[in-house]
Amino acid sequence: MHLLTDIEQPLVEVLASMEIAGVRVDVKALADYSLKLTEHMNELDQECHNLAGQPFNTASPAQVGEILFDKLKLDEKAKKTKSGQYSTTEEILLKLQDRHPLVGKILELRGIRKLLSTYVNALPALINPTTGRIHTTYNQTVTATGRLSSTNPNLQNIPVRSDDGKEIRRAFIPATGNVFFSADYSQIELRLVADFSHDETMMQAFAHGDDIHAITAAKIYHQDLASVTPDQRRKAKTANFGILYGISAFGLAGRLNIPRGEAKMLIDGYFNTFPQVRQYIDRSVAQAKEKGYVTTLYGRRRMLPDINSRNAVVRQFSERNAVNAPIQGTAADVIKIAMIAIYRQFKQEGLQSRMILQVHDELNFDVVPGELEQVQKIVVSEMEKAYQGKVKLTASHATATNWLDAH
DNA sequence: AACCTCACG
DNA sequence: ACGTACGTGAGGTTC
Fold first, then answer.
1. Nearest nt (C1') to A118 (CA)?
2. pLDDT 10s digit of each residue in chain A, 407 long?
3. Nearest nucleotide (C1') to the CA of residue A149?
């Protein structure tokens, strides 16, 4: 069993080596994409002014709110933020999309502006002129759970979900002549829940190597796996994530956009299916209330001073933290153990390939082609060896010419 | 510097 | 009756 000190101290050197190695980006591709996106953004900006019947700053949430709610009256009881202005988040705008063509344009514009300002235009400026690469800083002492964070730039939130976002991730490339290798844990947090709770049903699902969200749906809805609909699977998947975050019927209902009653039935069905998961969650909260903190498998503590607060809102927030922190934190510990083992093994075998990026459950490498087989073997086996519980961890991997396609 | 919004796991 | 998913970092607006 590892001690926390066997992780944190050696990791300092590992992180330093990753920062020094850095990552290469295709500047030409980003520059071309910047031109294209900027043109599109300017068109959208003009269209927004036309649709609003007046010029306004589309980048100002306050002005967007005034146009949508004061001028166009799209929602009589529009939600306000705590500072008193209209809230215009993506979630709210999506629900108003059918009421006026301006709403969709604002959403489209915001998406493009975000990618341009935060990534496409910002990243080239952070290329080190000496190395020609981007060198992030990994912080080991920032998060409450034991995760790393990444700053200047943050390389743990590079876009991947939208089509435009994918183009940005595609611009992350290996050194000339090298290949990009990526490996990530499959469902690490849910697997830890299965192991911590010893829930028979969940452990079996993972042992069988099945689609965990589909299995969950089949059990909750009492159906055959084959007859699970995409919508049932989606709901089960959201419920699974909810468990990791300390679920509530209200929160789940909001996420799924379903009535609270249905959310409650979903949760009841979930805990009927996985009874030991509920017991595990209860144990986490009980431990927090008794000791004032919770711990990861390796002893990392999260202090929870508000766990016995008389203020229900404050207390329940702590209770969700009590559930989430051991799960998220143990996953963080596990990948750190793997990173140290991989670093040492690379060194021992004299490899020139480099570990360059960590994104919570994923590791990325700039690999000399002749070393690919060795790298693959070391990375996957050390990631899977890093945690030896009843439920095994698995790591999937891929090799490509860029970060996007290495998934 | 606070606030809002949104990118990721 | 209350307000509710967990963890981050960064850019733009506003004051």
1. C11
2. 688 999 999 999 999 999 999 999 999 999 999 999 999 999 999 999 999 999 999 999 999 999 999 999 999 989 999 889 999 999 999 999 999 999 999 999 999 999 999 999 999 999 999 999 999 999 999 999 999 999 999 999 999 999 999 999 999 999 999 999 999 999 999 999 999 999 999 999 999 998 999 999 999 999 999 999 999 999 999 999 999 999 888 999 999 999 999 999 999 999 999 999 999 999 999 999 999 999 999 999 999 999 999 999 999 999 999 999 999 999 999 999 999 999 999 999 999 999 999 999 999 999 999 999 999 999 999 999 999 999 999 999 999 999 999 99
3. C8
**Rounded Cα gap, residues A381 and A385, in angstroms:** 6
Q: Which residues pair with A236 in a beta bridge?
A: none
Distance A311 CA to C3 C1' (A): 11
Cβ of A22 near strand B (under 7 Å)? The reply is no
Q: How far apart are the first and last CA of chain A?
A: 31
Encoded tokens for A65:
């709110």
CA A86 to CA A208: how far, in whole Å? Answer: 49
Which nucleotide shows the minimum CA-to-C1' distance to residue A361?
Answer: B9
